[in-house]
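Need the bound structure for fe (ii) ion, inputs here:
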Amino acid sequence: MSLNDQILQSIDELPPFPIVIQRAVQLIEDPRTSADNLVDILQFDPSITANVLKLCNSAYFGLRRTVSSLREALVMVGFDQLMEIILSQESSMLLQAPCKGYELRQADLWRHSVACALLSRIISKRLNREATLTLFTAALLHDIGKMMLGHFVQDYFGQIKNLTGERKLSFTEAEKEILGIDHAELGGKVAEKWKFPEPIILAIRYHHAPSHASKDREVVELISLCDVVAMITGIGGGADGLTYHGDGELMKRHHLGEKDIEQFIVKLEDRFQLVDETLNTKRGGEGRSWLTMS
Ligand SMILES: [Fe+2]
Ligand SMILES: [Fe+2]
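Answer from helper R.:
Posting the output first, comments after.
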């Protein structure tokens, strides 16, 4: 079997995203979908319901009454926030494992992904755009391809690293040259397999080369920006972090300067700590909600 076939086959070895979440994400771009439709789908997964209730009833939300169903959670925290909690929790199953090829330890990729997802709200707000669930989902899953490509990157790490040094290729360019496919392209194939909406597929596929996207450029560029800022923070950063270039152009085009980046990082650090603590349930909180902080 060729290396390319082996890599493509690895998509089937990825632990499945719960089928009800796949279905919910497929529907988020459809204007005919209501919050009730989605909750109808999600409430049939007992572990999702259990996780949401546990979190909604934790000190972080500081709700005055006990939430006992997904529908009540929907009323109490709102639809987008409910989906964000569910997506962040469920993605941890997919993104928790160490990813040796990228020098990512346990949960590093999940932390980087959650940082990007939170940045999608922060940066959208700064650019006066709507912070949509499409952006949140795309940001959360943008590096999903690393979970499959990691083993292959580990096997060919020396050659990939050489190309980033000698020919100054970015890590993804070197992946493509040595392995025939890069983690962004592979991630796009996973999103296609899960029948996700096209803007999410394209944002994952082109997050390191937004100018190559022929459609949905706004979404793709925003995810790319989130990734750049997340890499600057170093949250869950890996071996590839310092090899990317050409991001200055994207910042300039959106009139973003160093001051903006500093502000993004300050806002992110505060929110990220709460998410990390809440979802990892390391310790109790002070009744603040990480999703509603502005
Ligand atoms: Fe990436
Ligand atoms: Fe990334």
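Comments: Residues 122 and 263 are 9 Å apart (CA to CA). The domain at 3-279 is CATH 1.10.3210.10 (Hypothetical protein af1432).
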